[in-house]
Design goal:
Blueprint: H1 2-16, H2 20-24, E1 29-35, E2 38-44, E3 49-56, E4 59-69, E5 73-78, E6 85-91, E7 97-102, E8 109-113
Antiparallel strand pairs: 1-2, 1-8, 2-3, 3-4, 4-5, 5-6, 6-7, 7-8
Length: 114
């Protein structure tokens, strides 16, 4: 019976496109924030790659990168940047809103899961 349940769970995960990493790491996914007319989308993949899109007045700039996290800190290394983007992160109770606070201080932003 237990084997059937585990097998059914694996089938559901494969069909839905979920991975165990995305289930256990709530950062994995697509996130969006709009502040002062600037829309930022982050796509954090389970394999540690990331895609960032910043859009102002319908003009978007796309950047690729990599990311790692621990229990409180998200570190993103964007291609072409000499500094890592280090943020303290937290989630609401449903993991649908991620709050990012720059570790060195600055604008706190809330991103909605897409």
């Amino acid at each position: 019976m237990k084997k059937r349940i585990v097998f059914a769970l694996v089938v559901v995960l494969v069909i839905s496109g979920c991975t165990l990493t995305s289930i256990f790491n709530p950062i994995v996914g697509v996130w969006e924030n709009t502040t002062l007319g600037v829309t930022t989308n982050y796509d954090f993949n389970a394999d540690g790659t990331s895609l960032g899109t910043t859009t102002v007045l319908s003009v978007g700039v796309v950047t690729t990168g990599t990311w790692v996290s621990d229990s409180t800190t998200l570190t993103v290394t964007w291609a072409g940047s000499s500094e890592d983007q280090v943020e303290i992160y937290s989630f609401n109770s449903g993991n649908s809103i991620m709050t990012l606070t720059p570790s060195g201080g600055g604008l706190v932003r809330e991103f909605a899961r897409q």
